Structure prediction request, 327 residues.
Amino acid sequence: MAHDDHWDELTERSRQRRGRRGRRRQPEMSEDEVKDLAHERRETDAFLAGLEDGGSGYRWMKEDRYRRMFRDIEDKLQGVLGAGPFEWVDRRVFDQVFDRLTLMSVYKLMSDGVVDTLDHPIARGKEAHVFHGTTMDGDAVAVKIFHTSNAVFKNLVQYIEGDPRFGGLKRRHRDLVDIWVRKEHRNLERLRKWGLSVPAALGVQRNVLVMEYIGDASAPARKLREVEVEDAETVYVALLEFLAVAWQKARLVHGDFSPYNILWHNNAPVVIDVGQAVIDSHPKSREFLVRDVTRLVEWGQRQGLDVEVADALVDVLEMPLDHVEEV
Ligand SMILES: Nc1ncnc2c1ncn2[C@@H]1O[C@H](COP(=O)(O)OP(=O)(O)O)[C@@H](O)[C@H]1O
Ligand SMILES: [Mg+2]
Prediction:
């Protein structure tokens, strides 16, 4: 870990290396890269200014700030680096997930008291890694960290690179990810407001979302897809009502309502992964709603229930919900 002397040793080594390469010509940066770099610098400055009390005098402290920040955070990221029970996060994955701005975001969430430590990874997906974290009070939280670059995106780059309309591509992509994460946070709050069973949203900073952890000390809750429920009828009705309240009250359509995105916790379903949920005025909201209902009905049928899509859809649209109030 980067304790003081180790840090000094590393930076010294780097300085020596740089000295040796000093005369080599720097490769030219493209206009986009220059824009991205300038944008990154502005963000870093704004971020550091936000950490300082009055905002003044932070400049000369900048390097020191970084140094302390990364030392603090590395101590709190022990589990993530593979010291814990999950060894699969090697240095490469670590670097992929925790780029500079992501580390700063995690640091901000830590200094705001939203989360204290990141303990170990729970799941990795194409778009995000999810980690188990702990608050100062010892409560478990789930920390979903969205990747800010991915293979899909890299494929797209070749089609738009060099097109002047897409200047500062990296920045644009990053901004899109941030918007997406804030959307997931907002959707969680909106569903929760109507008493729906989703994890409580606890905080968001750029591409990092903190929410209530669903599971116990040994493991996160299993997905509905992987469990055998005793009373499928009750679960089916509960999930149908979830869709109905979401549509009629919260005016949201989940959009990816599969048994992979429903956790089974304390003998009841908890719905996750609401980033793609759309409001009812979205042009595709009805199409998504039909798809969500179909997924649920297919699950019900696999459980041996006599259910069908047409009935379920009418239920979702018209189920009387006068008893449901905002909480
Ligand atoms: N709040 C949570 N508590 C416990 N586990 C979670 C939580 N949120 C997500 N997970 C775990 O992380 C996995 C991926 O999360 P999800 O939100 O579905 O992201 P993705 O977009 O990658 O599918 C889930 O299948 C689940 O195992
Ligand atoms: Mg998912």
About this structure: Residues 122-123, 125, 127-128, 130, 142, 144, 199, 211-215, 220, 223, 261, 272-273 surround adenosine-5'-diphosphate (ligand 1) (CB under 6 Å). Residues 92 and 199 are 30 Å apart (CA to CA). The mean pLDDT is 79.
